[in-house]
Write a structure and sequence with these properties.
Distance between the termini: 29 Å
Order of helices and strands: EHEEEEHHEHHEHEEEH
Number of helices: 7
Shape: elongated
Strand order of the largest sheet: 1-2-3-4-5-6
Oligomer: single chain
Number of strands: 10
Strand content: 15-25%
Length: 243
């Protein structure tokens, strides 16, 4: 999934705009976090510039099984300010009764949990920088350009460039080829282990790029320089009844 990065979620207007999107999930730059509000539960993954994958991050879940009202009331009580939410949640004693905390006392229907995120592919915006779409081919290709293409789904005809090993029954070259790698998983590996990756124009087709891992060809694709279309959709009374 292509997750948008917003400057912040610290005002009422920012939250309303966020909740009107078809997919209410985004990164924020100030504070650095991943926010997901696609169900009755508000999920906040706290990040920082050193977070290289999601398992290093603390995650909070706030909501109720049958209604989004408790989560929305919590957002309003924090003055629509994500920083206030994170600061308050960081002070909650989850080893005891979380209702004893002043931030949560009034929210009797709100269920609050704290745990470590399981999503390895979550990387802080500060660590990545802005992976904006490419609008044209650069003079010299590097890994930053590859990350931009993969992050914005700007690729076509992704093919494997791996060579099957002869006399290896696991590959069964005569009957099936080697599948191409999954693009988003490849993006995470490029970010985490950049020294193992290279990208360059394909030697046999100048319209394509070839990606190498540990100096061996892995896959190739044709860049697509059209910017991805934003996904917007109004959710009607789901968000307007409790403003």
């Amino acid at each position: 999934m292509n997750i948008r990065c917003l400057p912040h979620l610290n005002t009422r207007e920012a939250w309303l705009s966020f909740c009107q999107r078809e997919v209410s999930c985004c990164f924020t730059e100030q504070p650095e976090a991943l926010v997901d509000f696609q169900s009755n539960y508000l999920m906040i993954t706290v990040l920082d510039a050193n977070t290289r994958h999601g398992k290093q991050a603390t995650k909070y879940s706030l909501g109720a099984r049958n209604s989004l009202e408790p989560a929305w009331k919590f957002i309003k009580a924090c003055d629509f300010n994500l920083q206030i939410m994170i600061d308050g949640l960081s002070q909650v004693n989850f080893d005891g009764n979380v209702r004893d905390n002043s931030l949560l006392k009034a929210h009797t229907e709100l269920t609050v949990r704290k745990f470590f995120s399981k999503e390895r592919a979550v990387i802080s915006p500060g660590h990545l920088g802005r992976l904006l779409p490419l609008t044209c081919a650069p003079k010299h290709w590097d890994l930053q350009h590859l990350q931009q293409l993969l992050a914005n789904h700007q690729y076509q005809d992704l093919r494997t460039e791996q060579l099957a090993l002869p006399n290896n029954d696991d590959f069964m070259v005569e009957f099936k080829g080697i599948p191409a790698p999954e693009a988003q998983a490849m993006l995470v590996e490029v970010i985490n282990q950049p020294d193992q990756w290279q990208v360059r124009p394909h030697p046999n087709d100048p319209k394509r790029l070839i990606v190498l891992r540990q100096n061996a060809p892995l896959c190739s694709f044709e860049p697509d320089y059209h910017s991805p279309k934003p996904k917007m959709a109004h959710r009607g009374t789901r968000w307007t009844t409790t403003l």
